[in-house]
Predict the 3D structure of the following.
Amino acid sequence: MTENLVITGAGGFLGWHVRVLAQALDLPAPTLVDRELLASPARLAPVLSSADRVIHIAGVNRGDDVSKGNVALAQHLADGLRACGTPPKAVVFANSIQAGNGTAYGDGKAAAADLLAEITRWSGSDFADVRLPNLFGEHGRPNYNSVIATFCRLLADGGDPQVTGDRELELMHATDAAALLLGTTRQRATVRRSVSELADQLRSFATLYGRAEFPDLTTRFDVRLFNTYRSHLAPEPVALTRHQDPRGSLVETVKVHGGAGQSYCSTTVPGVTRGQHFHLSKVERFVVIGGEAEICLRRLFHDEVLRFRVSGSEPAVIDMPAMWVHNITNIGPSDLTTIFWSNNLFDPANPDTYPEAV
């Protein structure tokens, strides 16, 4: 068990996912090293000293200084390691499969790996050079982290992805990359898709989800890619159409175009809150069909809380984003009745549910 974890680049896309997974695994809160601290060996050394695991993620992906930038950041870490009293047990470098491919980015990554390998040989720390493929996942930065993030942002804004120079990519979800960096797995969970295939699948997601319908969520990749697309949409209630005739009324709460799923209904007495947890990948929908409720959501490691009031008299769906803490509170005078739907059957051995207060 890693008791003392240090992360550089924790404020970026992959760093955030490492923090999320560490919390889900109930690891102690990691020490976060920003660029200012990384550049100060005297201040950095005591942070690194005696650490169980130092994960170096800080890097430069774009720009004219991409090669020099990645080497400089690795040099900062090396300076801190050289100055620390007791070397960390392990240093893990979030490298790329592009390392050494002749590009400025690839050559910079390879040089950074060589530098860290040399300093850890000197210090006696274990060194892991983890070469990661193209990463995707929730809250990636468009035009920077991945083509998937760029396509998702375009579709969320009503645009249409254009593919030029189609090619096949080796893809890994950021949570799986985080597991490699944390040392909780050695399995490389990758898939291969062409850029055009990704564009087509994401277009389908946008079309169906625009009607509050779920696409085919048969495979793990489908779920992860869909959650990535959803992360570029602001969570909000979506009103349901009520069909009425002399017999009464009907609302369609969930339409799914493939994959497993489970629905259940619960009642909640006045003043009681359910939830207070997050999921790594589960797709979950709330529909209040009786009573009054407040649904609250907060992205992990962020302070802003989104609050939505919903009523059974005007049914609306609210879908819980992956890696967002959420709850539902009965704020009315009578029992609250809610329909819940998730994309997979509940597995007590692997519930994908992690406690955290909104």
